[in-house]
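Can anyone check this?
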Amino acid sequence: MARQTKSLTFGQLRAAIAKEGLSWQVAPGARSNQRIPRMTLGGDPEGLPLADKAPKIDFRKIVDVGTNPFLAVRRLERGFVTADKVQGVFPRAILLRAGLAEVTEAEPPPEGGSAASVDWRHRWGRNWITTVRDQDGCSACWAFAGVALIEAMVKIEDAIWTRLSEGDIHRGVGSPCANGNNMGTVSTFFSTKGVCDPACFPWATNDPPYTPTADRSGRTVRGPAFGWVGGLQACKDWIDLYGPLVTWFDVYNDFFAYSSGVYERSASATEVGGHFMLVVGYSDALDAWLVKNSWGTAWGMAGYGWIKYGNSGIDQYAKASLRNVNPDPWSKRRLHNGALYESGNGAMNRNLEVMGANGTRVQHRWREGGPPWTWGVGKSFATDAAVCPTLTGTTFNRNMELVYLTTGGRLHHWWGPGSGTGPWNDGGIFGPTDCQGIPGFIQGDYNAPGNFEVVVKVGGGQLRHIWRDGSGWHNGSKFGANIALSGATLVQGDYGSPHGNLEVVAVFNSGAMQHFWRNEANFSWNAGAVFGTGIASPPVMIQSQYGMVNEAGPHGNFELCVAAGGKVQHWWRANSGDGGWHHSAVFGHDVAAVAGLCESQWGMNLEAIVLRTDQKLQHYWRDGAGWHEGPVIGPA
């Protein structure tokens, strides 16, 4: 139980600061007779190794190239990896985007060769840290700090913004709001059960029963147990080379009113309990750690603060570390469409999975998420596929599921284990008898597990919405007119509340493309912008993370690829800008259609799979330098 004491007034705190000659400030708008708000703690140091007792880390043995190109360059600069190894993982174009003109060997750094300062909120010109949260009167700092670490590492290692639930850990271990807990509890829960999103089980302060949705196992970020990093230099090295750390902190009552500057406790302050926070950086010039707290944005510097090295027990215990996280399908649900999906499979948790169809069978192919980048041939199945399937990862135990147009004008559903190794299971034929186009297919967030949603062209030149819940498939409304082609463009975007609008793009008989969207409030389909000309193939669309500052937004762009004249056109809509569609690039050759598109974990690159005129599949990818031609994978 967190210790309770009578709170100070702001006037008393100002007097204590002046007496001690401290450098930090109290919020200037606070009245002197106003009581300092009580913030809840809840940290328990049980199981934390003392800093000087933590296992020594030999960074030369554990540091590899990794999955983040910016960190790969940093590790090269410090001499922990070789140029050959970096070049074996990252193409030169990606390294140029990371700011390294030429990859050259570096001299081994001197002892203590970490950067003089690191701030993961602004590193390499971008933010890697999710929004500040508020434990809201509960003794749950341990859950909030643990979730903050996991979210940060998903972004740093996998280029994905994710929102996870502090409540999943808090109530998953049975902890009531009034009680504290320790970081070992968080580590064990995460390594054995993962952590889910708030829609699966939310954060609440009234100690609700732990009743996550039935698909929890398929919507959890997974990873190993936390490690422990002890000692000032080792912690700075870890933050420089890997990412944030969770720290223990002895809280004194003058810490509640911290506003800016470097915190050092007053000699007259009273200890009130223990606390966990996330260390997101440090500064040798300030001689201090930069921490992300869980008391909302009204505390400190919009929820952050500087704490002097060694002060208030912040370096007494080892700090908790994490690496090698595995994102969940739910966090990636808007980032892929069509025949291409980036799964959590493989040594780097980022294999590309492709489903082709040539003749009537479906062929699964996959590419390992690291060197030597070879494509493997998986299982084949089905006897009635008319087109390349639309593939997705779902929260049903991380299954991969697909839908395709059959040779008989119906739709066919198949599903297999998330590993992709099979067996593939026949989910049955469904839908109207006049289906004519490539189906858009997603798992939405209506119900849990979420309903399947399909939009496909049917007879009469219209689009039809079809959906599946626990009672089966249902034919929904028709919309649009003069539709020539539908494609794998169905996305449940982040517009609309409590559910996102459904968004889709189709091709008119005229060769122009039409954006449609379904209003969340009344389920009515609406016609949006018309754009493009001369299109005679089905498009593929995703909602990317371009334009987002953190997991809360702003809205990421829509990205669309479509074949025209044997080449691929790339279009995008500035969802956080003018809202208009923009034609950005033309690339490729001998392209009959675009089969799949995704935003990958390789630095937010776009990856595309095209169907060539010779009926083979080929891979293209885009980084900051533009689009690049990849290998021909094999027959569709």
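Reply from J.R.: I decoded it. Residues 1-6 have pLDDT under 50 and may be disordered.
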